[in-house]
Design goal:
three-stranded antiparallel β-sheet; alpha/beta; single chain; six-stranded mixed β-sheet; 31% helix
Length: 266
């Protein structure tokens, strides 16, 4: 199968980021969830979830359809009430309220909508009526935001005419204003080809190094996790496995969750 060949040909490289030892937050900011659970109506979405994410790490949240990945992200963001304890610690060890950046899954814009990328930013980050001419200082601020994702050329484009990759770049730039402690992306590689995935992951790698923030993303695609991701969390009712990409992708828990045979190896 084509995807299996991709798994076998994943390029390897030395990790660019050495996370602190497990269980330690000393000298690095971190997000720690303890015994997190979520019920929606009569349904238990997930339970007994523990997670530990340090600044500078890229963490991938994986799991089968219906495992609760998007719901866990929304619980972390405070959009769903959850049980358990969620704490954020600064590098000093002090608790703090984290700043989150969020890129949702598959946002849809009307291709006939005349709103431009500049208009979208002004509406989101500034108290300035969009029907008035934009001051030079605000335009320069939007350009600076787009520069974080190398998207300055998109500033005057209509949002509805952007390609999927261009729209993702704009939403990522929005999520980085202000620069958050934790950047959360829900299925950012959905519908993106291999070249697009590499461009996105290269950009996320650059962002986490430039700003020393944590990145937590859910994904259904595992072909390129190993070169970029520090840690993988396998969610299926609870966290079934956690560790380096190859460690999790070669685990019995992964094979069970995705109904793979015992011969499956990455």
């Amino acid at each position: 199968m084509e995807k299996e060949k991709l798994y076998q040909n994943i390029r390897t490289r030395q990790p660019k980021h050495a996370p602190p030892p497990p269980g330690s937050c000393h000298g690095a900011c971190c997000l720690r969830g303890t015994d997190l659970g979520l019920r929606l109506g009569d349904e238990t979405v997930f339970q007994h979830v523990d997670l530990h994410i340090h600044c500078g790490e890229i963490v991938a949240l994986i799991g089968p359809n219906g495992a609760g990945k998007s719901s866990l992200l929304k619980a972390i963001l405070g959009q769903y009430p959850h049980t358990g304890q969620l704490d954020f610690f600064l590098s000093t060890g002090d608790r703090a309220q984290p700043v989150f950046g969020y890129v949702p899954q598959n946002p849809v814009f009307d291709r006939n909508d005349p709103i431009s990328v500049l208009d979208l930013f002004i509406a989101c980050i500034a108290r300035w009526p969009v029907f008035l001419p934009v001051p030079k200082t605000l335009r320069e601020k939007v350009l600076a935001c787009l520069a974080r994702v190398h998207g300055e050329k998109l500033i005057d484009r209509r949002v509805g005419t952007l390609s999927g990759g261009e729209l993702q770049r704009v939403l990522l730039a929005l999520a980085l204003e202000p620069v958050p402690h934790i950047l959360i992306l829900d299925e950012p590689m959905s519908g993106v080809d291999i070249d697009g995935m590499k461009l996105l992951l290269d950009m996320l790698d650059e962002i986490r190094r430039s700003y020393d923030l944590s990145i937590l993303m859910s994904t259904h695609d595992f072909t390129m996790l190993d070169p970029y991701v520090d840690k993988v969390l396998l969610l299926n009712d609870t966290i079934q496995a956690a560790g380096a990409p190859r460690e999790v992708l070669n685990s019995d828990a992964f094979r069970t969750a995705f109904h793979l045979g015992k011969e499956w190896r990455v």
